[in-house]
Amino acid sequence: MAESSRSGGGGALELPPEIIHHILSYLSAEESTRASLLSKSWLGAWQTRPKLEFNPKLYFHKKLKLRRTWLRSKKQITNICEEFFWHVKKTLKPYRKQGICIDTLNFRVEGVFSLLNPFVMECTKVAARNGLEECTKVAVQNGVRNLDFSLPDCDLPEIVFGAKSLVELSVRDGYIMPMSVGKIMCSELRKLCLIKVDLDVEMFDNITESCPLIEVLEVRYIEGFDNFKVTKLNNLKELAVGLLENQSVIVDAPELESLTCIDEENGNEESTCLITLTASWYQNLKCLLFTGIGIGDSFFMEFAYKFPNLEDLIVRYCRELESIKISSQSLKRIQLMDNNRLVEAQFDVPKIVSFEYCSGRSIVPRFHFAAASSGWTSYFCLSKRVDVNSSWFVKLRELLASVIQSKISLEIDFGCSISFDLDEIRNIVKTHEPQEVHELALQFDWMFSLEKGLSALDGLFWVCRPKYVYAHWDDDVRENEAMKFLYETLMFRKIQDRFHDSQLSKIWLHDLKEVNVEVFDMGTYVIVDRIVFTERGMKEQQQQEDLDWENFLSLLRNNGIRERIVCFKLEFRTHDIPQEVKRLKMQNLKLDQQQKL
């Protein structure tokens, strides 16, 4: 290997232009500009980089340093706009003269015009439009493969569709003027993304007809579409469609591997967006996601036949679902979220890996699982905004019993009144064993009270025996009351006098053998309202039982931190049950579930 040399000026390590180009491709426009100052070789590579980015917003903000831009003269504004156009032409000069390849062009106008006065708006539009036309023309002539535009109030240059080398095209917010099929020459296009673009259905059809090799298609927020079709793309593998009020789409793409269809206004109860899948089967489809789409129970009738290799199913905010039956030999992951009319679901999914259910409604659905693979996980997120009584805890018990073969995680947000009466439940449930649960995340609303807390714990510990109980702490008076209750109830469980009004508390407290508490920092992130810990958010403190509340609160506030996650690790006494009895009970449960299916 040849010995590396160093430039005489900056002392930066010399690298071949190809490697510098590769490094610059990971940097922003501003970062790559700074990198060009490292040495002559870096400057030369920067001047011939295959990825170009132009952002008038950034350019104007550097020039218009005063926030009150209207104090500047019209001449100054005009000069700045002319400077931007000159900047574009100067950057493009070596590419135009030497025919240097332009692999990627990003041109983003977003957010410029809303910040400036009418005169400035007009000047910047002219500068942006001229710069856009200029750089697009050079890019197309120099074999551009990827074009990424964000063009409020601008037309997409027609020359774009004459780019035979084009592989990826992304347009946001701009106008696409009608063109005939014969003028659309980018037949090598593999990826097309259209978001908030003004175009008509006929032009969309002309694009898809002229670009039959498209493999990835994203179409979202297109107001001019009432009904449109995706039916001429036999190579299509990934499709993402975002529909507006009462829009519908017809899809006939048998080679699809991923399909996402979303009602962008799913909060509108009166809107019904529809999708029609016309192919008889989608043998390659692995991931299917519907949000707010008008599908009914019948959609799942021939599910196994139509999607024989589906692995991921996500169904959210589909209001017409009531009682569904899903049978699939391939499904591994299922997520059902806020399908508000769903009361029952039956699953025959032997390869299931994870199941998630989230809802903020009062009805607790009935789930039935046939024999499933071992080692799968289930997660339930229930946000209660209406009163919770004893019968709700009975239904929760039945819900958890339906996934007894899985490792269960449960998250409940009580934003309501809670009442739990053991005598009332005894008339409903004759025999009962709490369900083993891996983790329970518990949240109370700001109207927390001791009575509400005791009823919640009595009911939940009658339903299940969690190994871990998580609670979010915010340094707020109300949340401190809830955390104080949890801490003192679980950690100081030997003090029985304060529980004289709750007979059941004495029962589960008697079974509580050991408790440890761990404090996590907020190095966490959230997926669908579920707390997931990162490495940065792992255990920070572990405390002993003899630490009183005031000292524990001081520890939570340590280093000025106002938010933490507190985890109680619980160990309950087990009541010995003969192994043969356990085996028979499990066998009877499986038989009962199979009969229900």
From TrEMBL:
<dbReference type="InterPro" id="IPR053772">
    <property type="entry name" value="At1g61320/At1g61330-like"/>
</dbReference>
<dbReference type="InterPro" id="IPR001810">
    <property type="entry name" value="F-box_dom"/>
</dbReference>
<dbReference type="Pfam" id="PF00646">
    <property type="entry name" value="F-box"/>
</dbReference>
<dbReference type="InterPro" id="IPR032675">
    <property type="entry name" value="LRR_dom_sf"/>
</dbReference>
<dbReference type="InterPro" id="IPR036047">
    <property type="entry name" value="F-box-like_dom_sf"/>
</dbReference>
<protein>
    <recommendedName>
        <fullName>F-box domain-containing protein</fullName>
    </recommendedName>
</protein>
<dbReference type="Pfam" id="PF24758">
    <property type="entry name" value="LRR_At5g56370"/>
</dbReference>
<feature type="domain" description="F-box">
    <location>
        <begin position="15"/>
        <end position="54"/>
    </location>
</feature>
<dbReference type="InterPro" id="IPR055411">
    <property type="entry name" value="LRR_FXL15/At3g58940/PEG3-like"/>
</dbReference>
